[in-house]
DNA sequence: GTTATTAGTTGACAATGACAACTAATAATT
DNA sequence: AATTATTAGTTGTCATTGTCAACTAATAAC
């Protein structure tokens, strides 16, 4: 192992600690709303890929299918989503947000945006750009694999 | 709000999604051990600041005091930590790792290091350095406040 | 000396999540 | 075509995780 890798591991460790607290801070706020962290993740995922299947949510978010099934049942009851059995494969039930569901997600996004804004509102233009670049760089690197 | 801030918010949103999955991946591994994510965080925190008080763990990790109290009671039962009532203030019970506790934490660190290494093992020296720099830059910026 | 605050514990309970067994539909095998 | 295997999703059961409020004991503040 290279020296630079060892020191990267240390840095990642410390970043994980830092970011866990930060995510905790942001997630508290979800709780201020009606939806838990996982529910929010699922809602966002449904929004970004309409007609998604439950099994895709499981694999993308690394969640148990029984867990997802129950959350989706709840969402359906709350009229956030609708599921229609696919005509070509009756095992599949593509999920879509209702108008109400979309409104809720939009509100959630607005709220989390505000939470994030509170964190970064004091950053000047140069810092904002540099941080965004750094974040993108990190994501790119890890997604390359 | 500046344009660069708006785009930073978008980037942070996407980074949060990305990093939640990544932390999930790393945390799964903790479960392979005997300790949950929160327990691990607490153990690490105790290690890094010996003679720490329960209330400090609560504030640093943003955890409920009853929750922390129970976890610490469990740790004590498992002989991972010892608590001694402070002589100057008998309400306080400074926490320290036992020899066994330290061994366990050291093992945990070793394991998570290996998990992280698996993620970064293909990075060359230059990439490793750039990522570490980017991570440090981000932490610094958010800690400045 | 009385009241307020702080550190930590306990009880009761809700939310979160894991695992296995199940149904119904489709695909693969013979 | 009939049997077997696989897949999408649901349901039962249970353990873990986490929250909230009420409590004790010690100290600080008035």
What's the structural blueprint in terms of helices and strands?
2 copies of one chain form a homodimer.
Chain A (H helix, E strand, L loop, with lengths): L2 H30 L4 H12 L5 H8 L3 H13 L3 E3 L11 E3 L1 H22 L4 H20 L1
Antiparallel strand pairs in A: 1-2
Chain A binds a DNA duplex (30 and 30 nucleotides) through helix 4.
Task: Write up this protein.
Chain A is mainly alpha-helical and 145 residues long. Chain A has one domain (29-144): Orthogonal Bundle (Arc Repressor Mutant, subunit A). Helix content of chain A is 72%, strand content 4%. The first copy, chain A, contains six helices and two strands. Chain A has helices at residues 3-32, 37-48, 54-61, 65-77, 99-120, 125-144, and strands spanning 81-83, 95-97. Chain A has a two-stranded antiparallel ribbon. The two termini of chain A are 18 Å apart. The mean pLDDT of chain A is 91. Chains A and B meet through α1, α5 and α6 of A and α1, α5 and α6 of B. The first copy, chain A, binds a DNA duplex (30 and 30 nucleotides) through α4.
Summarize the structure.
By secondary structure, chain A is mainly alpha-helical. The first copy, chain A, has 6 helices and 2 strands.
């Amino acid at each position: 192992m290279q020296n630079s890798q060892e020191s990267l591991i240390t840095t990642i460790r410390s970043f994980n600690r830092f970011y866990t607290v930060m995510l905790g801070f942001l997630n508290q706020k979800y709780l201020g709303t009606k939806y838990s962290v996982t529910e929010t993740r699922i809602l966002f995922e449904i929004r970004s890929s309409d007609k998604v299947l439950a099994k895709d949510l499981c694999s993308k978010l690394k969640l148990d299918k029984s867990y997802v099934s129950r959350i989706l049942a709840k969402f359906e009851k709350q009229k956030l989503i609708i599921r229609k059995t696919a005509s070509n494969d009756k095992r599949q039930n593509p999920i879509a947000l209702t108008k109400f569901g979309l409104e809720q997600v939009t509100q959630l996004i607005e709220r989390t945006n505000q939470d994030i804004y509170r964190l970064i509102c004091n950053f000047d233009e140069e810092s904002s750009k540099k941080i965004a670049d750094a974040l993108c760089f990190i994501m790119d690197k890890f997604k390359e694999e």
